[in-house]
Write a structure and sequence with these properties.
The chain is an all-alpha fold. About 85% of the residues lie in helices and about 0% in strands. The protein has seven helices and no strands. The chain has helices at about 1-40, 45-55, 60-75, 80-90, 95-110, 115-130, 135-150. The termini are far apart. The relative contact order is 0.08.
């Protein structure tokens, strides 16, 4: 009898978990959609909150982390944005184009803090992953020119 009760309890727990997963998916999609909507409306603080909630539901979700990093960037929270971008950029299991964009945006956070040499390295990484990334190429040349001017003074 105890064995049957144990199996029944395990079955109930498993059924409860399987019912939770679709609810989590719905909540995740809701948070992502709300985050995107707030981002489009330029309410970056609320967007970041929604992307954070999505990440709490699915901690390994790269789009949520990338969108959160973009929101933090817009809020000029450079260090927080840098950490997110660097986490994405350094993850070999992520799509190379997303990683290239993360390196590019990481470089932008460094450039906005006038960390020219570091930004150059980030743009190089972006271009290694996506040689057609014209924005990374443009910013690389811009940061290089700015560094050369700085060294001449």
């Amino acid at each position: 009898m105890i064995i049957k009760q144990t199996y029944f309890l395990i079955l109930i727990i498993l059924l409860g978990l399987s019912n939770m997963l679709p609810a989590q998916k719905i909540e995740y999609k809701k948070q992502m959609n709300l985050g995107v909507e707030q981002y489009k409306q330029k309410d970056y603080s609320k967007a970041a909150d929604h992307f954070n909630k999505a990440l709490h539901i699915n901690p390994n979700d790269n789009p949520a982390e990338y969108n959160l990093a973009n929101s933090l960037y817009k809020l000029e929270k450079w260090e927080d944005a840098q950490n997110k971008y660097k986490s994405i950029a350094g993850n070999q299991n992520i799509n190379p184009l997303l990683r290239a964009n993360a390196w590019y945006n990481y470089g932008n956070t460094l450039l906005s803090q006038n960390k020219l040499q570091e930004s150059l390295e980030a743009y190089k990484q972006a271009l290694k992953l996506n040689p057609q990334h014209e924005d990374a190429r443009y910013n690389y040349l811009y940061a290089l020119k700015k560094l050369q001017q700085q060294n001449q003074q």
